[in-house]
């Protein structure tokens, strides 16, 4: 039996699940409500082949999903401005796109310090892309987005 995760671990899990859910939502065309329900029912704390999935902060997960969908146009525009002109968000890997949308939602609509948000999503990028190039890319894009979302300073 595993120990109950602390609040920070639950927030980290919620961020990871949000990236996965946004990816799945785009790939499957399902609604945010259907994907959110599926993740809450079948991912949070579920056990697969003796591996237990992490408990996530349900409130943060729901907020990230809702904000990513409600603010998608704004977040995508912020992402486009952070990318070089020849690489609009539509040409970015779908996992990175989901990551930028979740991270962007948190940067736009959260009181969490931007440096914490960036670090969390860079760690998620490292989990999906272990060679490290994408993590540096994520760091640069989210840093640009953070400065745009918080022009008064980080």
How would you characterize the overall build of this protein?
It is a single chain. The protein is mainly α. It is built from seven helices and two strands. The protein has a single domain, classed as Orthogonal Bundle (N-utilizing Substance Protein B Homolog, Chain A). Helix 1 runs parallel beside helix 3 and helix 6 packs antiparallel against helix 7.
| Whole-number count of domains | 1
Distance between the termini: 40 Å
CATH class: Mainly Alpha
Query: Which spans have pLDDT < 50 for at least 5 consecutive residues?
Result: none
Which structural category do the helix and sheet elements fall into? mainly alpha
Q: For the largest sheet, list the strands in their spatial order.
A: 1-2
Number of helices: 7
Radius of gyration: 15 Å
* CATH homologous superfamily identity: NusB-like
Secondary-structure element order, N to C? HHEEHHHHH
Q: Beta-sheet strand percentage?
A: under 5%
Major sheet, described briefly? 2 strands, antiparallel
Amount of helix: 55-70%
Give the total of beta strands. 2
